[in-house]
Amino acid sequence: MEQNAQERREARRKRRQRNQIIAYIVVILLIILFAIGVVKGVNYVTELGKQKDQIKQEQQDKVDDMFEEEEVITTPEPTIEPEPPVVELTPEQKLDEIVNAGIEVMPLEDKVAGLFIVTPESITGVGKAIKAGDGTKEALSKYSVGGIVYFGQNIRSEEQFKEMISNTVLYSNYPLFIALDEEGGSVSRLSSAGLVEKVDSANKIAQSGEADNAYQAGSAIGTYLNEYGVNLDFAPVADLANVDKSVIGDRSFGSDPTAVSAYVNAMMQGLQDKNVTACLKHFPGIGSSTQDTHKGLATTERTAEEFRANEFVTFKAGIDAGADMIMVSHMSAPSLDESGVPCSMSEAVVTGILRNELGFDGVIITDALNMKAIADYKAADEAAVQALKAGCDMLLMPEDFEMAYNGVLQAVRDGVISEERIDDALRRIYRIKYADKVPE
Fold first, then answer.
1. Which of 54, 285, 337, 376 shows the greatest Cβ crowding within 10 Å of its Cβ?
2. 268 in Cβ contact with 223 (< 8 Å)
3. Are 391 and 417 in contact (CB under 8 A)?
4. Exposed/middle/buried for residue 389 (C-beta within 10 Å: 0-12, 13-18, 19+)
5. Rounded to whole angstroms, how far apart are CA atoms 324 and 52?
6. What per-residue string of b and e applies to 319-333 under the rule 16 or more CB within 10 Å gives b?
């Protein structure tokens, strides 16, 4: 029994050893399997990373290719556009721009007032104006007239007259024509006042036979007018004294249209060289009449053919020489307008002949509207409206300025005269006034 027990203990010991050996073998196998798994896992992860990197690189390459392709498509070769040529405006075009810009901002009331040249008395209400003070300042603020014309009664001394003109210009909101009748001879406001040396009459200048003497006369007059501040001279006289007892007398350079043309143009040039605007007068030629429009109706018996062969030759020569302004008389010329209306009121004469036939594109101004040839037969407003409708651009000295001004203003508001007609006149006026504003 003891032997059997010992055999059983030995058997159990052997079984424990065998189980321990098996356990060790299982553990070792598990360790080996785990190691193999780890190695394979690491290799898998590494390979997977490589695959991801490869895929990522392939995607990046595709994106880069796309941007490269897009850049080629959306970035064409740049084309250089040639710069537009710089258009240099002519002096005439520059002047037009300045004039139009000025007119565009003017109220209608100022536009209408700008068509009038008046005496200082007619806007201030004084009996005799010899200075420009608060009354002148107030008047010019209310009525922005286009110009002031002075006569002998306004001139007392050099200092007084210069100061009067200077203040008047200062008080105006717009450039002014400062005007005188300074022809030489008997029609010379400053020389008659004893302030300047008298210049010979047109007739006496013509007797010299030298057109240069007319230039010297114009230059002398222009020099002293400029010193006083006068910028518009109602001269030279372009009328022909070609009828017996012609109303124009020695104010004319003669009866031959060719010779008179030379004197007229020379005097006009002399004035303009001194920056004084010349105004040829009195279209179509009051020298062909023996009657005085200052005193009443005046008419001429000249035929249209005679006008074209004589007076029109002189005025056309002045136009071709660059005349800026022409004055139309109140004489009736039935051969040019069978209605017999004064020429200043005649569309046939002003627009049909002077503007269209003779090609004058400057300022057309009436003779003084307070002359009896007009004032005795027409109210101031009627005369002003009729003259504008005939084609005149400026209205000189109406009998009643306020009536004439209000009449024209109402005519524009009623459509009797278009505002464009007013603007057209102002363009001509301001082309003269702004001529020195054009940059060189």
1. 285
2. no
3. no
4. middle
5. 93
6. bebebbbbbbbbbbb
Q: What is the mean pLDDT of residues 337-345?
A: 97
Cut 0.90: pTM above it: no
Neighbouring residues of 301: CB distance < 8 A, sequence distance ≥ 6: 335
From the list 337, 358, 357, 354, the residue with the least C-alpha distance to 391 is: 354
Whole-number Å distance between alpha carbons of 161 and 178: 12
Let me know how long the chain is: 440
Closest CA to 111 of 430, 433, 368: 430
Residue 289: Cβ within 10 Å count: 24
CA 266 remoteness from chain centre:
30
Q: Is 294 a catalytic residue?
A: yes
Q: Is 248 helix (H, G, I), strand (E, B) or coil?
A: coil
What are the tens digits of pLDDT across the range 128-163?
999 999 999 999 999 999 999 999 999 999 999 999
The two three-digit tokens of residue 61, written as one number: 């390459």
Please pick, among 200, 337, 367, 400, the residue that the annotation labels catalytic: 367
- The two tokens of residue 134 are 């608060």
16, 29, 400 from 25: Cα distances, Å: 14, 6, 142
CA dist 197 and 55 (Å) reads: 110
Query: For the sheet containing 277-283, what is the strand order?
Result: 363-366, 325-328, 277-283, 232-233, 177-180, 147-149, 116-118, 395-396
Are the beta carbons of 326 and 355 closer than 8 angstroms?
no
Select from 197, 269, 283 the least CA-distant residue to 233: 269
Grouping H, G, I as helix, E, B as strand and the rest as coil, residue 379 is coil
For residues 438 and 95, the answer to whether their CB atoms sit within 8 Å is yes
What does the pLDDT look like over 214-223, one tens digit per residue?
999 999 999 9
List pLDDT tens digits, range 7-21.
Answer: 676 767 777 777 777
CA angle 46, 48, 52 (to 5 degrees): 115
Given the residues 110, 292, 294, 424, the one annotated as active site: 294
> How many C-beta neighbours within 10 Å does residue 368 have?
24
β-strand pairing of 363-366 with 325-328: parallel
From the list 228, 246, 232, 227, the residue with the least C-alpha distance to 285 is 246
Task: Identify the sign of the CA torsion 319, 325, 331, 336.
Answer: positive
Q: Which residues contact residue 49 at a Cβ distance below 8 angstroms, ignoring those fewer than 6 apart?
A: none
Active-site residue flag, 367: yes
